[in-house]
């Protein structure tokens, strides 16, 4: 899904991402909501000058237990669509049945659990009867390893946790002919902060900026020029991170890390390049009701998404209508946060 905007929902391949596999989102908390919801509708718009174009609609529905029950996705650019329904047995996700405007993409996900009610396998059956699977392994009650075989593409992701059980690193190994692609991901306060491909390529660093209320209002991803002085410093920083993170003894948190990343950019603009930027507006429950995607090269907003959130207590926040007032707020935020 791409037109004048760079929005990338990638719903049609919900569990087949380049980063590797993860446990499926089931509860409203898994989807990032801070208060129980029954339905969330999102509409994305792109625009060029005064021309506004509706791009896509996405709807998530949740049952009375706060678990996902249905999903709908509709593109307004080519009339493609996708929808799914979740089937529960004994209050556990049993199956997800996906239908698409392109029947080739139809598939069914089935789940298997261990004695502690944890998902240990996700089986995927496609329309052509081919099968794929994802297996989840646990150690010390934490997800430790994910094995995946999707359409013949094999991968393994290993998770690393601190003494307090905080995820601080993942190593994703994707098997390809002749050589494996090994990607390292580093986390702080449950957010990805750095990634790179071994031995030393495709470096990315992400900063998360908060507004005056302490809510996350901006996400900026930087690409590092390879074989630069900044890369050498980053590798030394990663080495220190790997020494201190396992014992929860890092001398900084996510805010300090983000501030340091922006300072590094200010001093090394030739080696750090803004690659991706998003802005957010939130409701009183700290849930996103509008987001803007930025063309960092041209320093302009190229798309906006509006959210209508229906809560379990029947309160409603946000709207999917295009609001020029929100756009003006985003334009002001862009000037505030633009690196």
SSE blueprint and pairings:
Layout: E1 37-48, E2 51-62, E3 68-75, E4 81-89, E5 92-100, E6 107-113, E7 119-126, E8 131-139, E9 142-150, E10 153-161, E11 167-174, E12 181-188, E13 191-197, E14 201-210, E15 216-224, H1 229-244, H2 254-267, E16 272-282, E17 288-295, E18 300-311, E19 316-318, H3 324-337
Antiparallel strand pairs: 1-2, 1-18, 2-3, 3-4, 4-5, 5-6, 6-7, 7-8, 8-9, 9-10, 10-11, 11-12, 12-13, 13-14, 14-15, 15-16, 16-17, 17-18, 18-19
What can you tell me about this protein's structure?
This protein is 13% helix and 50% strand. The protein has helices at residues 229-244, 254-267, 324-337, and strands at residues 37-48, 51-62, 68-75, 81-89, 92-100, 107-113, 119-126, 131-139, 142-150, 153-161, 167-174, 181-188, 191-197, 201-210, 216-224, 272-282, 288-295, 300-311, 316-318. The longest helix is centred in the last third of the chain and has 16 residues, at 229-244. It has 339 residues and is mainly beta. Residues 1-18 have low confidence and may be disordered. The chain is built from 3 helices and 19 strands.
